[in-house]
Amino acid sequence: MCLLALYQITLVSSLKAGDCEVCIGVINKIYKAIPSEDSTNPDKIKSVLIDVCSGMKGREQKFCYYIGGTEDAATRTLNDFTQPMGYSMPAEKICERSKKKDAQVCELRYEKQIDLKNVDLKKLKVRDLKKILADWDEICDGCLEKTDFINRIEELKPKFMREEL
C-alpha cells in the first residue's frame, strides 16, 4: 500500500510529453553556450545564462523574464537553475524541479507553425488567421468576419509564399 502511494507521487511529479518545452529548450541552449572549462562554476553559468537570455525573443524571452534572466525581471531565481547546471543535471530534471516552485515556468509552449501550403484556411480559428497576418507584418483593415481574414490571406499569399524553382 505504501509503495503504491509512493509510485503515484512520483508519477504526478514527473513531466509529461510537451511539458516545459520552452524551459527545456532554453536550458539546452544555455548548456551549449557554456565553455567546457566553466561548466561547473555557477557564477560563470549565471553570466552565460544572462548573455543567452539577452538575445531571446518571444516565449523564450518570457521564460528568461520569469526566472530573472532579463534586466527588467522582478524576481531572481537564477540560482535554482545555475546550481543544478553546475552539476550537469539534465534540462528535463531542472525544469521538473522548477515546476514545483513556480508552475508558470512550465506553462510556456512554443507556438505551432501553420503550414499554409497544406492547410484549409476555413478550418482555422480567427486567432490563427490573425497570427498569420501578424507574422507577415500585415493588417486587415475592416475585417469583421472570418471570410474577410481568409480573403486577405489569399490576397497576400503570392507575396509571402513564393515557390522555389
Which fold does the CATH topology of the largest domain refer to?
Answer: NK-Lysin
SSE order, as H and E? HHHHHHHHH
Number of helical stretches of at least 4 residues: 9
CATH architecture of the largest domain: Orthogonal Bundle
Number of strands: 0
Question: For the residues shown, what is the average pLDDT?
Answer: 83
**Biggest sheet architecture:** none
Number of domains: 2
**CATH level 4 superfamily of the largest domain:** Saposin-like
Percent in helix: 55-70%
Cα separation of the termini: 65 Å
Q: Kindly provide the radius of gyration, computed on alpha-carbon positions and rounded to a whole number of angstroms.
A: 21 Å
Structural class: mainly alpha
**What is the CATH domain class of the largest domain?**
Mainly Alpha
Poorly predicted parts: 1-13
**Per the principal axes of the C-alpha atoms, what is the gross shape?**
elongated
In percent, how much strand structure appears in the residues? under 5%
Describe this protein's structure:
The chain has 2 domains: 18-107, NK-Lysin; 121-160. Helix content is 58%, strand content 0%. It starts with a helix and ends in a 5-residue tail after the last helix. The protein has helices at 2-13, 21-33, 42-54, 58-67, 79-86, 91-101, 104-107, 126-135, 146-160. It is elongated, with a radius of gyration of 21 Å.
